[in-house]
Amino acid sequence: MPETILIIEDEPAIADNLVYALELDGFATVWCATGGDGMRVLRDRDIALVVLDVGLPDTNGFELCKKIRSLSAVPVIFLTARSDEVDRIVGLEIGGDDYVVKPFSPRELAARVRAVLRRTAASRPSPDKTPTGLEIDRARRQIMLRGTALDLSRTEFNILAELMVHPGWVRSREQLMDAAWDDPGASSGRTVDAHVKSLRAKLRKVCPGKEVIVTHRGVGYALSENL
């Protein structure tokens, strides 16, 4: 099941763009136009992250974040038209995980969502497991294939971890760049291809003859669901 992102934003045009970008990136979304509705969703649904507008019609986003923190440790990304440093500091000090100023690129927001989810996942003590025969321990940055630890570079780990989020789902080169590099603009599609080639060589040492990473020509890469 895809992770669900809760969007609390009162401007329909902005919310529509966020829903489109996040669902294109493989997430499920729930949109609420008020803080009250957002809190009800948080109590009733399993939410992976909240995108929270600071200027809501029924409450201040900073105050709502305090209420969210009393209920849950779910990551929060503030969305606001205010760019003052004081506002950014206040937002982060009261429990926000990131801060995006309008106007913004929906792709940038989606990349920030993934980055925050990766950071928060690293604090989980137990390894995540997928039905593919791969196991990931994000805290130790270790991936095992059929019980064998893989010797991966930082970038190789990030790429494989991104593919493991949803086995079988195709990730474009741009999505993998956003996930694997701190500055995606410093990489290219060919760089992604080179790292995938290296990854495949390491995976084949453990599973000879098995294509763990599948190429979808003209689209991107996916993790095999059957190992």
Structure in words:
By secondary structure, the protein is α/β, with parallel strands linked by helices. Helices cover 43% and strands 20% of the residues. Residues 123-129 have low confidence and may be disordered.
Overall average pLDDT: 83
Total number of beta strands: 12
Number of helices: 8
Name the helicity range. 40-55%
What overall geometry do the principal axes of the alpha carbons give? elongated
Q: How much strand content do the residues show?
A: 15-25%
- Tell me about the largest β-sheet: 5 strands, parallel
Task: Give the CA-CA distance, first to last residue.
Answer: 19 Å
Topology:
Blueprint: E1 4-8, H1 12-24, E2 28-32, H2 35-44, E3 49-53, H3 61-71, E4 76-80, H4 85-93, E5 98-101, H5 106-121, E6 128-129, E7 134-137, E8 142-145, E9 148-149, H6 154-165, E10 171-172, H7 173-180, H8 189-206, E11 213-216, E12 220-223
Parallel strand pairs: 1-2, 1-3, 3-4, 4-5
Antiparallel strand pairs: 6-7, 7-8, 8-9, 10-12, 11-12
Helix pairs in contact: 1-5, 2-3, 6-7, 6-8
Brief characterization of the structure:
With 227 residues, the chain is α/β, with parallel strands linked by helices.
Provide key terms for this protein.
single chain; 227 residues; 43% helix; elongated; alpha/beta; four-stranded antiparallel beta sheet
